[in-house]
Amino acid sequence: MSEVRPVPLNLRNSRILPIRFEYYEPTSLDEALELLDKLGEEAKVLAGGTDLIVKMKMRALEPKHLINLKRIPNLNYIVSDSESIRIGALTTWSDLEKSDIVKNELPALYDAVKAMGSLQIRNMATLGGNICNASPAADSAPPLLVYDAKVKVVSKQGVRVIPLTEFFLGPGVTALRSNEVLTEVVIDKHNVSVGSAFVKISRVATDLAIASAAVMIKLKDGILEDVKIALGSVAPTPVRAKSLEAALVGRPAKLEEVKQYLNLLEKDIKPIDDVRGTAWYRREVSKVLVYDAFLKALNRLGGCSL
Ligand SMILES: Cc1cc2nc3c(=O)[nH]c(=O)nc-3n(C[C@H](O)[C@H](O)[C@H](O)COP(=O)(O)OP(=O)(O)OC[C@H]3O[C@@H](n4cnc5c(N)ncnc54)[C@H](O)[C@@H]3O)c2cc1C
User: What pTM did the predictor assign?
Assistant: First the structure.
């Protein structure tokens, strides 16, 4: 019989939070920013808690102060005007799922919503939390990267608007300063196309991605006029596949063309072995996912050509 070894305390997602912390519930953004400024690096903001509380239970994080953002009004919205689509940081995945704007105007993000977690997780988890947690596997990242999204971050010192391509710095590391709150995701409508899609492969339906891919294409007379490709779980951060994008722009919008250049993906990704999959598997499946996302995106533009 194989030996049953005890799981080390710091690897257990137990029901007990084994640390002491001060808890705050600001009711305005100003109040939250004031607290963050005063409490510094020892403070963490809490949104849905579906990443943060898990990390605290596993003692991967031990903040001395927890600042819950959920009582701050006006950070949960999805609005679309002639120029842009703006999504508040506290918008939950369930809110995204119910939104006609997301469904009709941002199909790749909508695909990601449908592939994310369970209903319970989608009800609690926020878009801002998914971005700030900065997992290479974050499902919102590839769609937002192909839409060239920007994030608005606010502190007592002012506002910064950061392109998402510059926001992710490493696993769990972002350009966010300790006194800043992400308040909004902004997507310029020029960067959006109905010809966009996201696909993901995971061990079970509610798991993080082994690998994921999003594609956004614009066509002119059957030619790929604009191509954006992004992948998740195949590098230290979610990444754009710039080499493949560059090869495909100006080529006929045919799957045979896409297939011919897929090996270029290897220039843009750096997969690793972990509990979810091997580097080799990730490298190979990335090509299939990008191919599938292209097929889905082309179909959304009115039909694909082999
Ligand atoms: C069972 C389970 C299944 C999951 N499945 C998936 C999945 O399929 N796909 C996927 O992508 N993720 C998945 N996740 C991870 C998680 O649910 C998401 O990343 C979620 O969107 C995190 O949002 P949250 O509001 O819960 O963030 P929190 O846990 O509250 O915060 C996460 C991090 O972001 C920071 N933060 C949060 N909001 C802000 C803000 N506005 N400004 C600055 N910092 C902020 C927090 O300080 C913390 O460091 C899963 C988690 C669990 C437990």
Answer: 0.94
Query: Where on the phi/psi map is residue 67: left (φ > 0), alpha (ψ -120 to 50), or beta?
Result: beta
Substitution site in 97, 132, 155 for ligand 1 pocket (most atoms within 8 Å of beta carbon): 132
Q: Which domains does the chain have, with CATH numbers?
A: 9-68 (3.30.43.10), 78-190 (3.30.465.10), 194-300 (3.30.390.50)
User: Which pLDDT does position 6 carry in this prediction?
Assistant: 54
pLDDT of residue 3: 59
Residue 154 near residue 29 (C-beta atoms within 8 A): yes
3-state helix, strand, coil in the chain (%, to 5): 35, 25, 35
pLDDT digits (tens, 9 = 90+) for 22-72: 999 999 999 999 999 999 999 999 999 999 999 998 888 999 999 999 999
pLDDT at 306 over 70: no
Ligand 1 atom nearest to CA at 47: 30
CA 160 – ligand 1 centroid, Å = 22
Q: What is the pLDDT of residue 12?
A: 58
Q: In this structure, which residue's CA is closest to atom 28 in ligand 1?
A: 49
The whole-angstrom separation of Cα 206 and Cα 120 is 11
Please name the helix (run of DSSP H) or strand (run of DSSP E) that holds residue 279, with its range, or none: helix 279-300
Mean pLDDT of the chain: 93
Name which residue sits closest to atom 51 of ligand 1, judged by CA: 50
User: What is the CB < 6 Å shell around ligand 1?
Assistant: 44-52, 54, 69, 89, 116-117, 121, 124-126, 128-130, 132-133, 138-139, 176, 181-182, 206, 208
